[in-house]
Amino acid sequence: MRLLLTSQKERYFIEVKENHLYKRSIGFILFFSIMILLVFYISSNCEVEPMVADFPKIIAHRGANDRFNESTISAYKIAANDDVDALEVDLRMTKDGSLVAMHDKTIDRTTNGTGEVSHYNLEEIKEIPTIEVFSNQSTVAVIPTLKEILDTFTDTEHYYIETRLVNDVLAMEESLVQLLNEYDLIEKKLVTIQSFSQDSLERIHELAPEVPLTLLFGKGKFSLKEAKMADYPFIGMEASDVTLKNVNELHRQGKEVHVFFNDLETEKKEQERVKLLNVDGYFTNDIGFTKKILQLE
């Protein structure tokens, strides 16, 4: 009887030990499986997705604003001579409904005048020149209308136009599309329109559904969820919001990423950084530098 009990006890301990070893083996297998999956997940998220665009676009931000007064005919001519992919034109609307090239809501920063563009009629705005200093010399140039820009370049350039609300309401979209159609630029696929306002983009789409649109996000306001859900082929964001995750996620959605640079002091460094992430477009303030890093010179 004692031998039988001893044998049963030994079998019990053996079974417990085997069960323990089995559980440890399963634990090790699960642990290593999780580690492999984790490594795969991390590595897949560290890989840079290829560009959606066939080639990176060089977009002259307000023309060649590093060499002449921004958003003027001369600044756009210099940029065009540099063989950029598009001229970026910010639009504002005057009190009498004319579309002019002006980035800011007011004329304070770029002219010797003050006040909002929408408070002036065209004749008045034409009397207030833009003023800038280059190489210790002042340069003066008139504020151009969009029509004057189109008259200058006609169908020889691609226009990357930004719409804005006028006094917080939609106002310029019909006039813009009508003017672009007068020059057959939409039919010739020479226009891209961008805006921070989805209402403006939706109105443009209603008027000209064939025009490619870019949804812009202000610095620090980028929403990956909103960008992925937006039914637009291009997403514009400030350089500080450009991360591997954001770019990869948008590229997987088939969306191009176009980057603008608010900080001129860090722009070159940021251009080099976002280049490594395969962004699709550069709203550049230094055309020569951008062409250099993209090895286009």
UniProtKB/TrEMBL annotation:
Keywords: Membrane, Transmembrane, Transmembrane helix. The chain crosses the membrane at residues 21-42. GO terms for molecular function: phosphoric diester hydrolase activity. InterPro entries: GP_PDE_dom (IPR030395), PLC-like_Pdiesterase_TIM-brl (IPR017946). Residues 56-294 form the GP-PDE domain. It comes from the Bacteria. GO terms for biological process: lipid metabolic process. This is Glycerophosphodiester phosphodiesterase.
